[in-house]
Write a structure and sequence with these properties.
- The structure is a homodimer.
- In chain A, helix 1 packs across helix 4, helix 2 packs across helix 3 and helix 4 crosses helix 5.
- By secondary structure, chain A is of the alpha+beta class.
- In chain A, the strands form two sheets. A six-stranded antiparallel β-sheet of chain A has the order 3-8-4-5-6-7. A two-stranded antiparallel sheet of chain A has the order 1-2.
- Chain A has two domains: about 140 residues, Winged helix-like DNA-binding domain superfamily/Winged helix DNA-binding domain (Arc Repressor Mutant, subunit A, Orthogonal Bundle); about 80 residues, Ferrous iron transport protein A (FeoA) (SH3 type barrels, Roll), CATH 2.30.30.
- The structure holds a DNA duplex (30 and 30 nucleotides).
DNA sequence: CATTCCCTTTAGTATGTACTAATACCATAC
DNA sequence: GTATGGTATTAGTACATACTAAAGGGAATG
């Protein structure tokens, strides 16, 4: 319970743990190691510090659980991340595909005063620019379906690119330049399960996506 | 010459060294120790890393000098600091007295893309919100005189609060609430050298400042 | 049952950034 | 010329964050 404010590293861990918990995924060290791109021993010792400082508990079955204090800190860093993304996108006009990685560095330096000011200027958004829900607004995104579950001919609106896809800047650039961004319409053109691809047609033409990627893109069907 | 990008700590050192050099002050470790509020041995080892990585040279007489690479990095961090201050002040409406310390944390996470966008949105300012010159714009502030050199009855305009005063949040709050901010008018009311104070009168009433502080506040005389 | 796979941990190391205590160096002043 | 004050360094330590190599555990699968 020593630390009052998490370090940037701990904030990164908290954010990922919160998101995994939110999604009902198993929260274990191996997942963090992958998502944070650090070695397994690094995760072991960092989790040890996090337990010591009261951010998480680790069950006998090695599952990681946020403490109430950990939940608060995780929500704060995610809120600041998403608000910073909006600031970069709307106020500074950075490309949609770039705001995540910029915000990821800046988020750790945002005070609650700046956060409140951003909430005010940005009209208290419920979603980030990629359609992911602000902590507490999960119900909004829960009605959308994965793009991977569509069938040929479906008319859809892209609603959400999952947080974990945002980590890949090459993918994000591909999505942006092919108009796979929230609010854009598309029609499912072709699904090739043996090839693990799904092809859609939108304003920018024909776009093919891997099915694994399509599982983390959420859409609304149009009638 | 190992490091491409300075760490936040090194950026702090670079900024202070640049500012001391700009002001013609003696750039030695003891000064850094004071201004950065770290111990002398910490400065010794950090400067050693900075020499190793090509940011500075240390003369046989122990004077610290930025290398060309060090100058570039220092200018960049100061530019980003000042642009961030303006963003916080003009776009997010944070109080003038608070933007320095907020920007001091954020400045290390600003990419050149964000920097360019800020320059655009903020119309390429030549001064920071406290009247200190952007690197390369030193000539603008060189015509102002220290407030401490005024005489009773002088009508003045406050132009600049020196960077090193910005470090004291209590002082900054005092200055803001007494309208000692760039652009504000005042008249010198009383100077008490034996007391080391100078008193002025402005819209907000009568304000007394210590002479040491007044040495780092720059003004323009009105005729 | 043994092998394999996934996961975690231990052991040892490195680096940046901090500290205190003690030492050393130099110039100026008495 | 010795004392003082300002400055810098060495020595030893601490902590957060990273790594590799190696070992250990548990579950599933042949």
């Amino acid at each position: 319970m020593t630390e009052l404010t998490p370090t940037p590293t701990i904030e990164d861990y908290l954010g990922i743990i919160f998101t995994l918990e939110r999604d009902g995924e198993e929260v274990i060290g191996a997942r963090l190691s992958e998502l944070l791109e650090v070695s397994a021993p690094t995760v072991t010792v960092t989790l040890r510090r996090m337990v010591r400082d009261g951010w998480i508990n680790i069950t006998p079955a090695r599952k990681i659980e946020l403490t109430p204090k950990g939940v608060d800190a995780a929500k704060a860093v995610i809120r600041r991340h998403m608000l910073t993304e909006w600031m970069l996108a709307k106020i500074l006009n950075l490309p949609w595909s770039k705001v995540h990685e910029e915000a990821h560095r800046i988020e750790h330096s945002i005070s609650s005063e700046v956060e409140l000011s951003l909430i005010d200027k940005l009209d208290d958004p419920a979603l980030c620019p990629h359609g992911n829900p602000m902590p507490g607004q999960e119900s909004i995104s829960s009605k959308w379906k994965p793009l991977s579950e569509c069938i040929t001919g479906d008319k859809i609106i892209i609603e959400r690119i999952h947080e974990f896809l945002e980590e890949d800047p090459v993918l994000m650039d591909y999505l942006e330049s092919n108009q796979i961004v929230p609010g854009k319409q598309a029609v499912i053109n072709e699904i090739l399960p043996f090839n693990k691809t799904i092809t859609l047609k939108n304003e920018s033409g024909i776009v093919t996506l891997g099915l694994d990627i399509a599982k983390s893109i959420y859409i609304e069907k149009q009638h």
